[in-house]
Design brief:
The protein has two domains: about 5-100 and about 355-420, no CATH class; about 105-310, no CATH class. It is built from 14 helices and eleven strands. By secondary structure, it is α+β, with helices and mostly antiparallel strands. The chain has a nine-stranded mixed β-sheet with strand order 4-3-2-5-6-10-9-8-7, sandwiched between helices. Strands 1-11 form a two-stranded antiparallel ribbon. The model has no long low-confidence stretch (mean pLDDT about 90).
Length: about 425
């Protein structure tokens, strides 16, 4: 990767003329003196990305500082509460999704040395948070006493690029299953999902489309065991014909590999029983990955990669201000959510790009936390129309100095890189 290609990615999104055209097309801006779209976007990003507990007043102050335009709070608020403002930020978010894709990880081999039977890994989950109770009619929450109004964002994330394949914003009461990846789009793809998405009919459809899935199932499932194998692959014939609830793991750190059948389903399912240390009980993973090439222990390790989408949500909530907003205007809520995601995508783009440019192990978590050390520099450079390659050179130097992974050798054994995925950048020689 070259600094010029990163510069092009940044300039494509933060292009003053294109943003002005988009603002006019969405009817956010009808007269040029109302708002400067570029500086409005940058004000949102810097405030949400560098400040904890940010609010509209903070964004207003930052906009005035960046634009040099004295605008009172009320007319500023009137602009951002428009539905047109939400459409403007949504368009920008969708543009960033297509533009800021950088492949940061690559698949290597399974523990057996065999190649993965899939080419992509998708992680899917949803995350909800409470909003102002005055929005309980627009965005009803599931927990009416504690959070009468709540929003849920549904995200499908590509593990290898860190990009978002699917995004939806709904009330917290909307079924999360409606937004899981469609089976006919998952050819040669592995999807990782938690127990809330477990659906036996969908697993069958994914298999028919030559895709793969690992999904956690509820501890209450109780199909009939047709065949059972221990962690070494030895068949346990005495378990055949028994119900799953009768199963007991002899060794808590050794998963068991099962073939099961549910009544009314004309398909055998592969279930991996493992010890759920956090909840101190047996957990179940259901998958259609072939037993001959992907051992049970590998299924458990692969499923741990799903944690990366939880880390994305943590970055959004902790370092991009995706949290309870003190506004009763639904358009502002949606605009802030899109702006939070744009901010997170920018931070991850810079983290992954620095890793490839500097050939360093970079932590996206540290990059997000350290935004106040580099994001303001980038934004000021854009506002002042400075040379983007020069600014990005300084920014990546700062990230490279401050945001390296603390224990890359440990990560190869116990972290993200322990099982079958490695950085695209050729930096593994330190191991």
């Amino acid at each position: 990767m070259k600094i010029t290609s990163l510069s092009e990615k940044i300039n494509t999104i933060f292009n003053a003329k294109q943003l002005l055209a988009s603002a006019r097309a969405t009817k956010l801006l009808q007269r040029a003196r109302q708002t400067n779209p570029l500086q409005l976007v940058l004000a949102f990003i810097e405030t949400l990305g560098c400040q904890s507990k940010a609010n509209i007043a903070d964004i207003h102050r930052k906009y005035q500082a960046l634009s040099g335009m004295p605008i009172h709070y009320k007319p500023f608020h009137n602009q951002i509460k428009k539905e047109a403002c939400t459409h403007f930020f949504k368009q920008l978010f969708e543009h960033a999704l297509k533009t800021w894709i950088t492949r940061s990880l690559k698949l290597t081999t399974l523990s057996s040395g065999q190649h993965f039977p899939f080419e992509r890994v998708l992680l899917h989950d949803g995350s909800s948070f409470a909003i102002h109770s005055g929005l309980k009619t627009t965005f009803p929450g599931r927990f009416t006493k504690h959070s009468p109004a709540a929003v849920e964002v549904h995200v499908t994330m590509d593990l290898l690029t860190g990009s978002i394949e699917h995004f939806a914003l709904t009330a917290d009461t909307i079924s999360e299953r409606l937004h899981s990846p469609k089976a006919d789009t998952l050819n040669k793809t592995l999807t990782l999902e938690d127990a809330g998405y477990f659906d036996r009919a969908r697993i069958k459809k994914i298999a028919e489309n030559k895709g793969f899935i690992i999904t956690q199932a509820a501890c209450s499932i109780n199909p009939v065991i047709k065949a059972a194998f221990d962690h070494d692959g030895n068949e346990l014939s005495h378990l055949s014909g028994k119900k799953l609830k009768q199963l007991k793991l002899k060794a808590k750190n050794k998963p068991m590999d099962l073939t099961v059948r549910w009544p009314n389903y004309d398909m055998d399912y592969r279930v991996i029983a493992f010890w759920y240390k956090k909840k101190k009980r047996i957990g179940y993973l259901v998958t259609n990955l072939p037993r001959m090439t992907v051992p049970a222990a590998d299924i458990v390790e692969l499923y741990r990669l799903r944690w990366q989408i939880e880390l994305l949500f943590k970055e959004l909530k902790s370092y991009c201000n995706l949290k309870k907003f003190s506004t009763e205007n639904p358009n502002i809520v949606k605009t802030l959510i899109y702006a939070s995601f744009i901010t997170a995508l920018l931070k991850r783009l810079l983290a992954h790009s620095t890793e490839r440019l500097k050939l360093l192990w970079i932590s996206s978590h540290k990059t997000a936390r350290a935004a106040s050390d580099w994001l303001k520099l980038l934004i000021n450079g854009i506002v002042r129309q400075q040379s983007m390659p020069d600014i990005l050179g300084e920014v990546t130097n700062i990230i490279g100095r401050l945001c390296q992974r603390a224990h890359p050798k440990r990560d190869l054994k116990h972290g993200l890189y322990q099982f079958g995925v490695l950085p695209v950048a050729d930096i593994c020689t330190i191991a």
